[in-house]
Amino acid sequence: MGKILVTHYKVRINDPENAPEKPFSVAVLSDMHNEVYRSGVMQLMEAIRNEQVSAVFSVGDLLVAKGERCACDVALDVLGRLTELYPVYAVNGNHEVRMRNVPQFREQFLEYDRKVRALGVTMVDNLRVPLRIGGSRIGLYGLEIDNGYYRRNLREGEREQPSKGRKPARKHFLTVQDMEKLVGKPQPGEYHILLAHFPRYFPTYAAWGADLTLSGHNHGGIIRLPGIGGLVGPDPGLFPKYDHGEFTIDGRKMIVSAGLGTHTIDLRINNPAELVILDFVGA
User: Fold this and answer.
1) Where are the beta strands (DSSP E) in 144-273?
2) What is the per-residue pLDDT across 192-203, written as a single tens digit (0 to 9) for each?
3) What pLDDT, in 10s, does the model give residues 29-45?
């Protein structure tokens, strides 16, 4: 069995009126796709238990819905084990959205969603959930976007150009105004954490007001080249910009998980399954 890489990130809450009374940790899951790569559910659970976390955040794609394949049994097993031990907060990724939107998978998605909520998972899709962890006030937001926002690698300010004879394209680069319609504006007096599966829109997330964005989707670039980074990901094109790790815009941060699994091509090179641990501290 392969070993799960556990990556720690220190997160500082600099507001002296909202700093943690004592440090706390949160586990972040992403892109499991119904199987922990070269490992298993028990190895994942052991890795999480060893970290003594206060909560678990999932940023989507715990299941797989691709082509004719749709599977969610391992995802439900993991969530069931986690909710026995921790509060779990989750947002849907593009695979969950696809599962809901494809007619042949819709009933299976509705059953999956019902079971997830019955387990006690708090779904944060286009919602704000106020949390109090370690004495800090956390505004936890979850962003779910339509699959159309994943389709083209548009640059900021661009819109899709409709082909001749077709209706105008409705999807465009996600804007702050789009986010405000979906999740509202950040509430004052909180540290704002955004669960957003798709990292491409980090400039928008930062401009909206997310102090910390948690993302996945690109699977660490699938093949990681020393000194270069990830080679390719579900986001179109080689060398995805936000493949893995920590990124900063104007003091606001995004952490992108390399994910726990695969789909379509069962391959990860120099890129083990990753469990992200956030260690929150004061200034």
Assistant:
1) 191-196, 212-215, 224-225, 229-230, 245-249, 252-256
2) 999 999 999 999
3) 999 999 999 999 999 99
